[in-house]
Each structure stands twice: as C-alpha cells, then as structure tokens.
Design a protein that fits this description.
This protein has about 725 residues and is an alpha/beta fold. The protein folds into three domains: about 200 residues, 3-Layer(bba) Sandwich (FAD/NAD(P)-binding domain); about 120 residues, FAD/NAD(P)-binding domain (3-Layer(bba) Sandwich); about 325 residues, PurM-like C-terminal domain (Phosphoribosyl-aminoimidazole Synthetase, Chain A, domain 2). It is about 30% helix and about 25% strand. The protein is built from 21 helices and 36 strands. The strands form nine sheets. The chain has a six-stranded mixed beta sheet, with helices on one face. Strand 18 and strand 19 form a beta hairpin.
C-alpha cells in the first residue's frame, strides 16, 4: 500500500536561486528530508547561470539556454516557490520579508542571492548604465541591444577578467553582425591583475584582435546616454555601457544584524553565519576561515556541504566543514569559439579550451534540464475492476482541473426536489443562488480548490478570486465570506504559520473587493485545499445566464490556458515563466470588469467546464446559439505550445463530452480547457461592445470580443 504522508514539522527557506541553492534543490528532490517544508524565494522564475553569460553575449547560446528553471526544479524538489525579492531577515521573529505578501517564517534559512555590479556612487550610471549583475536584467537588456540595427559602440567599466570576457563577447557579437563601431574596456588602475602575466598577455592580444581599446589608469567621472566622461577630460563614445568593476553586496543584507565583511555575510567552515540558523553560500558570503575571490566555482563546490548541513540543522545532527581548493581552473572566453585556461600559472588557449569550457557548462546545466516527472500512485497487481481506468494515465490536476465533470454533476443533482422557499429565487443554471431578505437581494455561492501550487499565499489569492467569480458574474458587490480550509498534516507551529499566511491574504483579497472575511473552518488532511463561501449584494436584478439575445457580442476578459499550463507544470513540462504568468492571471480579481459589464444581457465566469461548457450554459438558458472566432480568443503564453504537444488537464475529456458534435483541432482544444479563476464571459449589446472592451483594457484586463450570439438553441459554431 502507499506510504502515508508524514506531517511537516520544520520550515527551510532558501533565499535566492543561486548556483548552490539550485544544486541543493536538485539533491533534495532525490533525497528529501521527511518532515521538512522547503521554500525558495527568488525575484523571478529562472536563475541565469553565470558561466554561460559570455557565450550568450557572444551569441553562442540562446536566452533560454542560460537559465535554470526554478519552477520546474522546485516541483521536482517538492518545494514551494515565492516569486519576489527578499528585502529583510527579521532574526528575532525568524521571518523573511518579501514585498506584497505576508512574511515567510523559517526554522533554518540559507542565503544565496549573488552580488550586484551596480555603481551607485558613479554619476549617471544608474540612469544610463547596465550592471552586469544580476545577470537576468543584464541579459534581457543586451538581447534587445544586440538585436537592434545600426552602428554600435559599447564599453565595459572594470578591467578584471569578468570585464575582459564581457567586452570580448560584445565585440565578437556585434562584429559578426557588421555593427561594431567602437568597443572600450576601462579600468581605474592596471587591468587583468587577477591572472598571471602569461594569461594577461594573451587576453591583451585577444582584445587587440577584436579591435577593443583598453584604457588603464582612467577614472570615470560620469556616464551619459551616448558617452562616458573620464576625469582627465577624455570622452568614450558608448551606446551600451555596462559595469563589471568588482563585486558589490546587496544592500538589504546589512540590516540583518549578521556579522559582515564589507557587506558580505561572514560564514564559518560549516557555512553558518553568526546566527547558527542562517547559512550563506556563493558570492554573497565571505569565507572568513579561508578568504577567496568571488567565483561561481566555490558556490558549486559548497553545495554538497550546504545540503548536508541544512539537513543536519533541521534534524539536530552534527555539521561537516567545507574547505575550498587553493586554486581552480579559470576558463575565460575570448569572444569566439576560443577560450583561455589558466591554473597555477600555466596557460593554454584556443578552440580546445572553448570546447572544454562548453562541455563543463553544458554538463552543469544538464543537471537541471532533465528532471524526473511526477509518477502515478502504485497500482497493486490485484485490484478492483475499473481502478486502472479511474486512475488514468497522469496525476490528477489541481484547481478546476480536479472538479467533478458537468455530466456527473447534473446527473447527481437532477433527482433532488425543487426549491420550496419563497425567499430563495431559482436561477437557471447559475452556480450562485439569489436570497431575498427584507427587500435586499443577496447572492450566495461556495467554491473550493485542490491546491495547484504549494504556496498558500498564491493559492489563497486564486481560490478567493475563483469563489468571488460567481458573485462578480451576477453583477453583485462582494459582502462577506467564510473560509473552508484543509491543511496538510503538520505541526502546531506550521499550522499557525500557514493559517496566518492564508487568512492575511484572504482578508486582503476580500477587502480589496469590498467584502470581509467573517470566519471559517479548518481541518487537517493529505493535501492543501482552500475554499470560500461568499455573499454579495445586488442593487438591481442580478445578471444571470438567461438573457442573451441574437446579435449580442461575446466578450471574454481573461486569456485561456491555465488548465493545460498547470497540468504541464505538475509533469515538469511547463516553462517557469509560463507558470508565473498563469498564476498571476488567475490571481487577478474581476471586480472592475464586473462593474464595467453591469449592463450585460447575460454573464458567467469561465471556470472548470471550460469556455465551451460555460458558453453552452448561456446558450441553453437563453435559448440561443453562438458563433466563435477562434483566432480572436486570447491565450496565456505557452498554452498553444503545450496543447500542440498533447498535454491536457485531467478534466478535459469530461469537458469535451459536453459538445460531442464538435471536433476541435489545434488551439480549438483549449476551448475545453478547465480554467481556474478564469475571466468573465458576457453577452452585451453589439453597439456597446467596442467601448466596453476599451474600458476593460484601460483597466488592465485582456478583454476581447470573441464572437456573437446567433439564432437557434444551444449550438456553437467555431471558425
């Protein structure tokens, strides 16, 4: 039989997606620690690998090849991802602050946020310069510049190895496109002192060979949009100026109260800071016991020790020490498919060194490119008939992908007796009910979701928006809500932390919508489930499914595709950026859209039954048909690509059975994709449609006219 899920008792928080943390996550996925809940906090869904940056700049690698997908990696590791930049560690209360969400509690934390090469003290650099680190922002800016047109002048401030690699790669890329006009490397002292004389000489020859001007003992006074002013009065023309002049720590670390060395976290051989519950690794850390220059190789070598010691700290075991090597093989790109290797003063350069560097880099990235997918539960050899078919060929989806199909739901509800109360108004096919109390019109609805991501804050936002969808679809103003929660089995401390995150988020969402959380119920189970019962008030008759007229325009306020994206995410097949965009869209409320569409003839929210299923509801209740312009229907990034690969939500077959006469092909299949917290679908007067879409778009909704209501009863035609 399947092993029971063990309770969670400790929180491990990884701050930053640097190389050491990425490797820790990979190892954690292979050998997790029972009882530990892992969280990784990073500004974005990916973490670029610094070793391949020069190759990317030179045009050897694509942007995607540069990135470690933290969303996929976290899924493999069983960790939750928080997309945001940490700004403070509150050691007294053991909290990590991330703007826009409740603080994140930890028992043990680790910091691997890298460094920045920003130059805040250099006049004009903030406005016109591009720091080489963090790498993600630099890579995006360079990609845009490299792919533009016209003569190009580039400059790098900082004549170390990193600066030389950058300017060589930039010059090579622009020269290959016939755009290079000028390339300059500037250092305030003597350049290339971090390598031996032989290596420095070869680097200087490489600079000369690509037409790079090296300016030494040249102090920069100011950076302007198209030039650099030196303190001796000279000017260096540059349309793209970057800085690689040494490592700078992130400023927020200084307020942590940890022991620092020039802003870098001081760590011991166990990689612990002055606070034994906080570890640090990579460039943001200073190895007081064995000082070394900033280099990615140390972060990679620290990762096995960090992995073991984090587990030891959570389990109360002994630590082990890390001892960095005395020297390491420096592989320095020379622009094209050539590199320079140096170790212990010996040097070798040429295509062979580039192939060796490429091999090492690709080998490192391969660790994160092929991650095992989530498996199905164990199926005993002896089992009841029908179990294999009920289990299916893939894990059950979360969100609306885990809903009961419409056909089964209708069949179960059909035998129930009709309403017998005069103060409950029956509404044809609507998920919400209308209560008539003392002359007031109150709508009530309830919904809950099986978690589709491990972050309670993101799930709460999505679940609250999803539950409010029925209220907004009826043109009502949210009033009150109760929460209905099932938490995974966990210790009392983790229960309190999780509930605090959930209730703070639910309160924020409901208040933003004009309502209040007034209570709720909780229990423990195998997995996280979040639901809300919501009420709303109507100042006039509610909008229902009944009322669409032939000639009406159909407006959709959100793109489709969340079901297929989250199904792919569970299988480790969706890009992290696609997942992040989908989660953001699902968490976007529809209060403003509901107000703009308050004169709609009929309206519903598009959720579990997909666009076709919910449109059929309008058609059946209104006695009309519809014509859809498939090409006009907005899709989430990645949805079409995943659908083309044959990826489907587990509810897709049920939704497809709602319209057996349809034979969808290509992106038309996404019309049956179950949507979690989807947009509003409204039938409006044709003469008002364009103006309504304009208002919706001005408010940030991706609203589109997707078709028209036609004569007939219950039919839908696709272009």
């Amino acid at each position: 039989m399947d092993a029971p899920r063990l309770p969670l008792t400790k929180d491990l928080v990884l701050i930053g997606g640097g190389h050491a943390h990425a490797l820790v996550l990979k190892k954690w996925g292979m050998t997790p620690l029972a009882g530990a809940r892992v969280t990784v906090i990073n500004p974005g869904p990916t973490a670029p690998y610094s070793g391949m940056l020069p190759g990317f700049v030179a045009g050897r690698y694509s942007r995607a090849e540069l990135d470690i997908d933290l969303v996929k990696l976290a899924r493999f590791a069983g960790a939750r991802v928080i997309l945001g930049a940490a700004t403070h560690i509150d050691r007294a209360n053991k909290l990590v602050h991330v703007p826009g969400r409740p603080p994140v509690s930890y028992d043990v934390a680790s910091v691997d946020v890298g460094i920045t090469s920003d130059m805040p003290d250099l006049r004009g650099f903030g406005a016109h310069g591009v720091p080489a680190k963090p790498l993600g922002a630099f890579a995006a800016r360079w990609d845009d510049f490299r792919n533009s047109d016209g003569p190009a002048r580039v400059a790098v401030i900082g004549g170390g190895v990193a600066g030389a690699e950058l300017i060589l790669a930039m010059a090579h890329a622009l020269k290959a496109r016939g755009r290079l006009s000028q390339a300059t490397l500037i250092d305030s002292a003597r350049a290339l002192t971090a390598v031996g004389s032989k290596a420095a000489t070869q680097l200087r020859h490489a600079l000369t060979g690509l037409g790079v001007t090296l300016l030494e003992d040249a102090e920069v006074a100011e950076v302007k949009a198209d030039r650099i002013l030196l303190k001796d009065g000279r000017e260096v023309l540059s349309d793209f100026t970057t800085g690689a002049a040494g490592a700078r720590p992130h400023g927020w670390l200084a307020n942590s109260g940890l022991e620092m060395e020039h802003g870098f976290i001081t760590i011991s051989e166990s990689l612990q800071s002055s606070d034994p519950d906080i570890f640090a690794a990579g460039d943001c850390a200073h190895m007081e016991f064995a000082p070394r220059p900033k280099a990615g190789v140390y972060a990679v070598r620290q990762s096995p020790v960090l992995f073991d010691n984090l587990r030891a700290a959570l389990a109360g075991l002994a630590m082990r020490g890390y001892q960095p090597q005395g020297d390491y093989l420096k592989l320095i790109s020379l622009g094209g498919k050539s590199a320079l290797g140096e170790r212990f003063g010996a040097t070798l350069s040429g295509p062979l060194m580039w192939r060796w560097k490429n091999h090492i880099d690709q080998q490192f990235m391969e660790k994160f490119r092929t991650l095992p997918a989530m498996g199905q539960p164990y199926l005993p050899e002896l089992h009841a008939s029908g179990l294999k078919e009920a289990l299916g060929d893939k894990p059950m989806c979360g969100g609306c992908g885990a809903k009961v199909g419409r056909n089964a739901l209708r069949a179960a509800l059909a035998p129930l007796p009709g309403n017998q109360r005069s103060d409950v108004a029956p509404l044809p096919g609507d998920d919400a009910a209308l209560l008539l109390t003392g002359g007031a019109r109150q709508v009530i609805s309830s919904d809950h979701l099986r978690a589709l991501c491990d972050d309670p804050v993101v799930m709460t936002r999505i679940a609250a928006v999803h539950a409010l969808g029925d209220v907004w679809a009826m043109g009502a103003a949210p009033q009150a809500s109760t929460a209905n929660l099932i938490l995974p089995k966990m210790s009392a401390d983790l229960q309190e932390r999780t509930l605090r995150e959930i209730m703070a988020t639910a309160t924020e969402v409901l208040r933003d919508a004009g309502g209040e959380i007034v209570g709720g119920h909780t229990s423990l189970g195998d997995e996280l489930t979040i639901g809300f019962t919501v009420t709303g008030l109507c100042d006039r008759d509610p909008i229902t499914l009944q009322g669409a007229k032939p000639g009406d325009a159909l407006i959709l306020t959100k793109p489709l595709g969340s079901g297929v994206i989250m199904a792919a995410e569970m299988a480790g097949q969706a890009d992290g950026a696609w997942v992040a965009t989908a989660l953001t869209q699902m968490g976007r409320g529809q209060a403003q859209a509901s107000a703009i569409l308050r004169d709609a003839h009929a309206m519903t929210d598009v959720t579990g039954f997909g666009l076709i299923g919910h449109l059929l509801g309008i058609c059946e209740a209104s006695g009309v048909s519809a014509h859809l312009n498939t090409a006009a229907i907005p899709l989430l990034p990645g949805a079409a690509e995943l659908a083309a690969q044959g990826i489907r939500s587990s509810l897709y077959p049920d939704n497809l059975s709602l319209a057996p006469w349809m034979k969808p092909v290509g992106v038309q299949e996404l019309l049956f994709d179950p949507q979690t917290a989807g947009g509003l679908l409204a039938a409006v007067a044709a003469e008002d449609a364009d103006a309504l879409v304009e208002k919706l778009r001005a408010g940030g909704d991706q609203a589109v006219i997707i078709g028209t209501v036609t004569e007939g009863a219950g039919g839908i035609v696709l272009d």
